[in-house]
Hints:
The complex is a heterodimer.
Chain A (H helix, E strand, L loop, with lengths): L3 E3 L4 E4 L4 E7 L7 E6 L6 E5 L5 E3 L2 E6 L4 E6 L8 E8 L7 E3 L3 E6 L1
Parallel strand pairs in A: 2-11
Antiparallel strand pairs in A: 1-3, 3-8, 4-5, 4-9, 6-7, 7-8, 9-10, 9-11
Chain B lengths: L4 E3 L2 E4 L5 E6 L6 E7 L5 E8 L2 E5 L7 E4 L6 E5 L8 E8 L9 E2 L3 E5 L1
Parallel strand pairs in B: 2-11
Antiparallel strand pairs in B: 1-3, 3-8, 4-5, 4-9, 5-6, 7-8, 9-10, 9-11
Amino acid sequence: RKEVEQDPGPFNVPEGATVAFNCTYSNSASQSFFWYRQDCRKEPKLLMSVYSSGNEDGRFTAQLNRASQYISLLIRDSKLSDSATYLCVVNGGTGRRALTFGSGTRLQVQP
Amino acid sequence: EPEVTQTPSHQVTQMGQEVILHCVPISNHLYFYWYRQILGQKVEFLVSFYNNEISEKSEIFDDQFSVERPDGSNFTLKIRSTKLEDSAMYFCASSESGARNYGYTFGSGTRLTVV
């Protein structure tokens, strides 16, 4: 089983649509969870941390289900500028700072 | 906004040569990292560095790799004898100490091409 598994997509959605990405992780000891976005041939950029209680940042909402080892990201009112690859990222466990990246889900928002 | 600076942006080297990739982390950060991304593949952890020593490393980070913080600002990755399969984008990152949910800041990367 992959350590962090994501649907590679691509997800092709019209502007204004709501789109959801899911991710599962295998290491039950993971303590820190993130969504990063990566534009083509650029560095990953932190989009948001993910907390068990769920958290929202503008149009973006992230959820974590520790029991199912499942993380989600919801993007509302998609913009053209949201087109990117979204990376699900977890750490290796208590005290470990090394991050394990999923392969990413590609989103293409179309006019 | 503070940023992590990497140089050069692109490095071409012959197989078997040594390369040094340079990074200037964010000034008040205490943890430093190197990751790599082979074209079309996922980002992979290489090594983390704290308090002037390696704190974690992956299986990829074998004896041909080394890291150094030669002064108060730079953080380098050395690859002693490059192989074709070392061709990748190498990202440096840094983070503050503190809350466990704090993410990193990545530099814009060095594209290493081994020929």
